[in-house]
Each structure stands twice: as C-alpha cells, then as structure tokens.
Amino acid sequence: MEVGKLGEAIPERRPGSGRGAALSFPNKELDVRTVGGRLKTTAGARLRAPSKQTDPVYRTSAHRRWAEAVVQHAGGRCEGCGVPGKTLYADHIVELKDGGNPTDPLNGQALCGSCRGKKTAGSRANRHKGGGSALSPT
Ligand SMILES: [Zn+2]
C-alpha cells in the first residue's frame, strides 16, 4: 500500500536541534558521524579548511611529500571503498594521536572524503572506548 516511498525517504528536518546539540553529548557520537558524513560529501569537503588546532607536523614538507606519495600510490582509487575518480586524501592508518608514524608511507592510505570521515570517527570512538586509563582519577 505504500506508494509514496520516494517522497518519504527525505528525513524531516528538525530546526535548531542540529549539530550543536548532538555534539554536547558524547553518547550521540554515532549521530554526529552519520549526519556529518552526509553534510561533508554534499557541501564539498575540499572547501573545508582545517580551522581547528592542527598538529604542526601536518604543515611540514616531509608530511606533504608523504601525502603526495600515498595518494599517488593509490592510483586514483580510494583505498577504503575502491571507487576511482574521487578526490583522495592521505590518511594515517594509525592516527598520530594513537601513536602512528606521521611520515611512514606504510602508515598511509588514500581515502575519499566519506571514507576518511568514517575512519576518523571510528578511531575517535575507539579511543573513547579503550582509553579509560588515560582518564583514571588517581
Ligand atoms: Zn572511499
């Protein structure tokens, strides 16, 4: 009986209760990831300048060379989803916050915007789950 499926696929917009609200609750991290991923792909991740605090290592020429090598090595294909022809970003397999080597080619993979977004959110979630010792109150 459901005929209007296409029309119903559009989620209703909830004005106000957007990103800000979700971000203030750590438990809502999953929501942030899904919604954020959508927004980034449509809004063009390329234009998003890293206005947050950036690790100084990202600005070194060694890191730039590493990034170029990683993307070139991928041959124009996202190493996450395997889709060719997307804009690729060099990504640290083991993130620097997790002790990854910033300029080791073996610690690099070329990811499209959406794969990178998913991967980054996943690493952050893992850190929250497993990083209990860092916050131990002793
Ligand atoms: Zn991808």
User: Distance between the terminal alpha carbons, to the nearest Å?
Assistant: 61 Å
Report the order of strands and helices. HHHHEEH
The stretches of 5 or more residues where confidence is low (pLDDT under 50) are 132-136
Gross CATH architecture of the domain at 56-129: 3-Layer(aba) Sandwich
The secondary structure category is mainly alpha
Instruction: Describe the strand arrangement of the main beta sheet, using strand numbers.
Output: 1-2
* CA-based shape: globular
Q: Please report the first level of CATH classification, the CATH class of the domain at 56-129.
A: Alpha Beta
Care to count the β-strands?
A: 2
Task: Describe the sheet with the most strands.
Answer: 2 strands, antiparallel
Rg over CA atoms: 18 Å
Explain what you see.
With 138 residues, the chain is mainly alpha-helical. The chain has helices at 5-8, 19-23, 29-43, 61-74, 113-130, and strands at 88-92, 108-112. The chain has a domain at 56-129: 3-Layer(aba) Sandwich (His-Me finger endonuclease fold). The protein is built from five helices and two strands. A two-stranded antiparallel ribbon has the order 1-2. The structure holds zinc ion. Zinc ion (ZN) binds at residues 78, 80-81, 83, 111-112, 114-115.
What secondary-structure arrangement, pairings included, does this model have?
Elements: H1 5-8, H2 19-23, H3 29-43, H4 61-74, E1 88-92, E2 108-112, H5 113-130
Antiparallel strand pairs: 1-2
Helix pairs in contact: 3-5
